[in-house]
Design brief:
Immunoglobulin-like, 6 helices, 5-stranded mixed beta sheet
């Protein structure tokens, strides 16, 4: 997990979350806690910036002070460069930290060379964890600018020379091509969105495309799978449902499924989606 000087969840409720990333405190939307009450109303007055959604995909930051263009936080050996974006994201999902620790632990227990495929890889938390633990990683995300940010994080983390392939492509198309080429992997990490678009207009719908992608990932790892890690933030997909989907695609195995959570400084638990782990 993050150390308190790098990240803290201060409070959440009424559809928002109050978080401290290094020296900056941010107030951002969080639909998962729409029906939850805030715990400390006074704490919200200390936010350095607040993000409000607009009518479209983009919104607006309101700042008490001038925010830096970028700043960094660390998680173990990994460094993340953060910056406020027009959609309210800043470059890291803190609820994933426990998964990064889990990935590194799995890989360090294996002495043989391991090939990891990270799909919908965002700014590279899982990629950095796997590479630092000695794996060869293929990092795939549809957005070129996001892949560039992940490469920057690798550089800041001292991993610019690590065996990482950086791929800006639609995840489904990439996996299909890897199957045709006969390439295989030992582990797969997926963090698919509910909806999305590839670089050439490809449409992703989790409800429609996730089962097919899981089946293809099973083929990519046939006979050699070390682990699969799936995270999901789509309403209606609870741990039991996602566990069943993974089990059907990979024909069983040791599978666990649970809610992702982030604990606040007062030990309250904010929901952060679902995680399914197969090993």
């Amino acid at each position: 997990m993050f150390t308190p000087d790098q990240y803290q969840l201060i409070d959440f409720g009424a559809g928002r979350r109050l978080e401290c990333f290094g020296r900056l405190t941010l107030d951002r939307p969080c639909p998962a806690v729409e029906d939850v009450e805030c715990n400390d109303s006074a704490a919200w007055q200390n936010a350095d910036a607040r993000f409000e959604r607009g009518d479209g995909e983009e919104g607006r930051w309101s700042c008490k002070c001038e925010l830096p263009e970028t700043w960094t936080i660390t998680h173990g050996p990994a460094t993340f460069e953060l910056k406020p974006t027009p959609v309210g994201q800043i470059g890291v999902f803190p609820e994933q930290a426990a998964n990064w620790d889990w990935i590194a632990e799995r890989l360090r227990s294996i002495s043989q060379p391991i090939k990891v495929l990270n799909l919908f890889a965002y700014t590279g938390g899982s990629t950095l964890a796997a590479a630092e633990a000695g794996a060869e990683v293929t990092h795939v995300d549809a957005a070129k600018n996001t892949v560039a940010r992940a490469r920057r994080n690798a550089e800041l983390s001292g991993l610019s020379g690590a065996p990482i392939r950086w791929i800006a492509e639609d995840a489904v198309k990439f996996v299909q091509r890897e199957l045709r080429r006969g390439n295989r992997y030992d582990a797969v990490v997926l963090d698919p969105p509910s909806y999305g678009h590839g670089p050439h207009g490809e449409v992703w719908r989790l409800a429609k495309h996730l089962p097919q992608l899981l089946e293809m990932c099973a083929e990519l790892t046939a006979g050699r799978i070390l682990f699969m890690l799936l995270t999901c933030h789509t309403p209606g997909y609870d741990p039991a449902r996602l566990k069943q989907m993974v089990s059907e695609a990979l024909n069983g195995g040791a599978i666990s499924a649970s809610q992702l959570i982030v604990r606040s400084t007062t030990t309250r638990e904010m929901p952060g989606g679902v995680v399914v782990r197969l090993e």
